[in-house]
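Researcher: Please translate sequence to C-alpha cells.
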Amino acid sequence: MSRHDLRQQLATLDLSSPEELVHRGRMLALLEVPDCFQRSCFPGHFTGSALVVSADGSRALLHHHRFLDKWLQFGGHCDGDEDVLRVAQREAAEESGIAGLIVPSRRPFDLDIHAIPANPKRGEPAHEHYDLRWMLIAPENAAPVLSDESHELRWFSPEETLALPIDGGLRRLVEKWQALLARRRKHG
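Model: Translation complete:
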C-alpha cells in the first residue's frame, strides 16, 4: 500500500465516531509531510497497530507495555514503510509471538491519534502517534510468546478489557469489536 493508496483509503472510510472524523482529517494533513512514516518526524508520525483476537473472536490478546506501563494492543513505528497494514502485521507478530495472523479486511478498523511521553533514553520529545488500527485473527490454538516490549501478555474478553484502566482510543476499539461480536451472535 502506497501513500496514495492510504490517502484514498482514509478518504473513503465509513467512520463511526466524531473522534475518528477529526483523526482522519489530521491524518490526511500529515500525509502531506514527506517524512511522516519516519519515527524522527515530530511532532507526530504514522504507526500501525492491531487488536489480535482469538480464532473464535471471543477474546483479544493484549500486552502490558514496558515503556508506557499500560495494557495495549500490539503496534509500532512504520520506520519508513508506507504500507501501514504490513507494519501492523509485523508488529503484532513480533510482539505477540504468533505467526500466521489472519487479515479479515485490508481497511483500517479504527483511527486514533494519541500522545506519547518523551523518551530521554532515545532522545525523543513528547509527540503523537497517528495510529491506523486493524483487527487480526489468531490461528486456532495460537500460543503467544512474551517479547522484550512487554511485561505480560494476556487474553481478555471484551468486558474484561473494558474493566481495565484503558485510554479512550483503546476503549473505542474494544467497543467496536464488542459490537461485531453482538452482530455475529444475533445473525448466527
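Researcher: Any highlights?
Model: Residues 168-186 form the longest helix (19 residues).
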